[in-house]
């Protein structure tokens, strides 16, 4: 019986030592990581969050952007998606079709696409980044605070948060 307890304890220690232990980092794919800022929390996406995401960001039939993780920050939301069988150009074309009250900026090159706009009371920042030749990530941020959209949700800040 004591050997069984010892074996169970060793197994638990092995499992916990191999798991992601840094709560300030979100493990992405292909060994990439996304640094969480103070006050950000990874939340389990419930049906309401999933419906909001699908309606706003994953509503184009030709481009699949399944929700990977949902992050809640102080006064903003981040939807992190893992593009599925979609090129950067196709995603950019799809996202440019989204109607906006005001488009503040757009950019598109070989490595990334970014669009910052206002839709109703929300300021939205969409960023698609080719992390390497095999991986892309989409980060959709929204807030009611323009200052947050221009600082926390801007593409240069997002890019700094992705490491390998």
Order of helices and strands: HEEEHEEHEEEEHHE
Mean pLDDT: 84
CATH class: Alpha Beta
Count of structural domains: 1
Unreliable spans are 1-20
The total beta strand count reads 10
Radius of gyration: 18 Å
From the coordinates shown, what is the CATH architecture? 3-Layer(aba) Sandwich
Could you list some keywords that capture this structure?
164 residues; alpha+beta; Protein Transport Mog1p, Chain A; 3-stranded antiparallel beta sheet; 10 strands; globular; disordered N terminus; signal
Question: Can you offer a commentary on this structure?
Answer:
By secondary structure, this protein is an alpha+beta fold. It has one domain: Protein Transport Mog1p, Chain A (3-Layer(aba) Sandwich). It is about 30% helix and about 35% strand. The strands form two sheets. A seven-stranded antiparallel β-sheet has the order 3-4-5-9-8-7-6. It is globular.
């Amino acid at each position: 019986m004591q050997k069984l307890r010892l074996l169970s304890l060793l197994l638990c220690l092995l499992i916990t030592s191999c798991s992601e232990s840094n709560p300030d980092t979100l493990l992405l794919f292909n060994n990439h990581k996304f640094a969480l800022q103070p006050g950000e929390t990874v939340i389990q996406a419930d049906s309401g969050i999933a419906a909001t995401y699908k309606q706003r960001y994953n509503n184009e039939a030709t481009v699949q952007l399944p929700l990977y993780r949902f992050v809640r920050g102080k006064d903003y939301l981040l939807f992190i998606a893992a593009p599925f069988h979609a090129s950067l150009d196709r995603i950019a074309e799809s996202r440019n079709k989204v109607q906006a009250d005001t488009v503040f900026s757009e950019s598109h090159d070989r490595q990334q696409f970014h669009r910052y706009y206002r839709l109703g009371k929300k300021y939205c920042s969409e960023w698609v980044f080719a992390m390497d030749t095999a991986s892309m990530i989409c980060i959709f941020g929204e807030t009611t605070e323009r200052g947050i959209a221009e600082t926390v949700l801007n593409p240069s800040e997002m890019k700094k948060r992705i490491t390998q």
